[in-house]
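Hi U.,

Before I forget, here's the chain from the pilot set. I'm dumping it here mostly so it's searchable later in email.
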Amino acid sequence: MTRSRITGIAFHVPERVVTNADLEKLMDTSDAWIVERTGIRERRFVEPGVGPADLAAEAAKKALADAGRRVEDVDFIVFATITRDYMFPGSGALLQERLGLSTVGAMDIHNACSGFVYALATADAFVRVGQYRCVLVVGAEVQSTGLNLSTAGRDMAVLFGDGAGVAVVEPSADESRGVLSCVMHAEGAHAKDLWAEAPTSLVMGRFTQQMLDEGRGYPQMNGRQVFKHATTRFPEVILESLERAGHTLDEVALIVPHQANKRIGDAVAERLGVPPAKVFQNIERYGNTTAASIPIALADARDQGLVKPGDLVVLAAFGGGFAWAASVVRW
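Structure:
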């Protein structure tokens, strides 16, 4: 089977910058409190009427240009998001329409923070078996419209931002380069430690008045459990993916994790015994963009010259589900 490779990568974020000082005006918080607990100094929020498919369309155009491909070359879309534009259809179909791709197939992956790695594994499988030859792998989120921007919701509201990242995945002409392994796990026993309960198909109307009154449509997190599991699962899955690929940690040029919290990223570097510079983090500027965070970070790292041809790169994520995953890529 043919190996797949990321031939283009790009990201797009809204123009509107929301600083910690801006959030101080909406809730009882401070820049020092946010930076100490999360490492975030600013994030991007969309303007009204802009959805994940809109952000993804801009990132997709940039990624295709980076790959030297035209829109017409795309033959499938895998779109990772938990903030899709509508309850249905999926955002992948909306992106297909925005790009003018007629009847090209599209699917959504609703897997929260690990969504992009799951989407990359899906595209890799399609390319390996020869079903598709140019796949857009998308991570895009609009979190800002679903946050409780008040003191009551500050623990979650300060974390998230909006954005999109897109990778172009194609067959590799060089068997030594490309996606070398993908490892995926989930543990639904912890689903309610990081979730948004509503809207839900378990009740008539998807929402009840009680749910609205209690703010149960906003994301909720058991921070202690998430930190404990994330700092355990991240190192585990990184090492597992490297073993499956037949490589070791000392060969890795860069680890690009989901940008959940700088404290988690720092803890992962410490537990793996690697220098902090080897674990790329840009959460300071973009916040947690959920499924979009890995492609945004990967494109950012590449643009900074931190990812070069031939480098061994590990992409890793942990989040809602709980679900976690990692992929080893020879750039």
